[in-house]
């Protein structure tokens, strides 16, 4: 297979405990003033890998794709500069697998 696959799942979240305010404790429905904390979900920064498929929260996947695209653009610019100077271009392992239509190394 060529390239990487990313699957976005809204279910890839973690929970943190935050204290409830007195207003929230007294005026919430159903009325449960003795519960002091609430669980608040936030995007998980973890990625789960299965072969060449990565599963994660959409916010995490978006950051990974932006960083990967930036690395690819930097690599292409360096390769172009090497070709202009007439130097040999050595391909780092794994970088072209992320390119659409890239070669498997």
Q: What do these coordinates show?
A:
The chain has 105 residues and is an alpha+beta fold. The chain has two helices and five strands; from the N terminus they run ββαβββα. It has helices at 22-27, 58-85; strands at 5-8, 13-19, 37-43, 48-50, 53-56. The strands form two sheets. Strands 1-5-4 form a three-stranded mixed beta sheet. A two-stranded antiparallel sheet has the order 2-3. The longest helix has 28 residues, at 58-85. It is elongated and about 75 Å long. 3% of the residues are buried. Residues 101-105 have low confidence and may be disordered.
Order of the strands making up the biggest sheet: 1-5-4
Number of helices: 2
Gyration radius, in Å: 23 Å
Mean pLDDT: 83
Instruction: Tell me the strand percentage band.
Output: 15-25%
Gross geometry:
elongated
N/C terminus separation: 11 Å
What structural class should be given to the helix and strand makeup? alpha+beta
In the predicted model, the low-confidence regions spanning at least 5 consecutive residues are 101-105
Report the biggest beta sheet as strand number plus sense, adding barrel if it closes.
3 strands, mixed
What is the helical fraction, as a range of percent? 25-40%
Total strand count, please?
5
- Helix/strand order: EEHEEEH
